[in-house]
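Recap quiz, item 2
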Amino acid sequence: DTAVSQTPKYLVTQMGNDKSIKCEQNLGHDTMYWYKQDSKKFLKIMFSYNNKELIINETVPNRFSPKSPDKAHLNLHINSLELGDSAVYFCASSTTRGELFFGEGSRLTVL
Amino acid sequence: DAKTTQPTSMDCAEGRAANLPCNHSTISGNEYVYWYRQIHSQGPQYIIHGLKNNETNEMASLIITEDRKSSTLILPHATLRDTAVYYCIVSYGDKIIFGKGTRLHILP
C-alpha cells in the first residue's frame, strides 16, 4: 500500500490554465506538506497543514491555493499557470518526531 | 534558508563505509539533525535523525559531535543503490528546509 500518493504523476498544460494536484496519505499523520523542486533541483517548502489548518505558507503566489478537506488529504490548486510553475511538486506527511514521508512527485510542465 | 553546510559531491567505493559530513555551527539547543536522501527523481527518503546522542538504525548511523556543531552520516557498507543526493537538515517543529545536499556517487 502506498503511504503518500499523488495524482497525477505527469501533467502537461498550457499557460493560463488552472490545474490541481491531489495528495492522500494513509499513515494517520496530522501534518502534510507541499514542496516544489525546480529544474535546479532545489527543494522548497511551499505549504504545511496540521490537522486541516494552514501552519506554513512560504511566500507562495496567491495563484497557489492548498485545500485540506480532512487530515489525510492535501490538494494543491494552481490558477493561471505560468512557465515558471514548471517543476516537480512533492507532497509529504510527517510524524510527530518530524520524519517526513514523501510521495513520488507530480511533474508539471507548462507550455 | 538552510542552516547547514555540506560538500557538493563525494565518491565512495562499493562495499566501503560512506561518511558524509555536515556542519551546523548555528544549531540551537532544541533543534534536531535530520538526514534525508533523494535517489534520482524519486521523493526524498527519511534516513535518520538525532538531537545530541549518536543514533543507529537499519539504514545508517548518525554521529553528532559533543558541541553539536557538526555531524556525520555513516552508510556502513555502501552499495550502488546508495547513489543519491543526501541532505542534512537542522530543524525544530514542522519546518523542514532542504539545502543543496551532497551528491554521493558509489563507484563499482
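Chain B has a mean pLDDT of 93.
The CA atoms of residues 40 and 84 of chain B lie 6 Å apart.
End of item.
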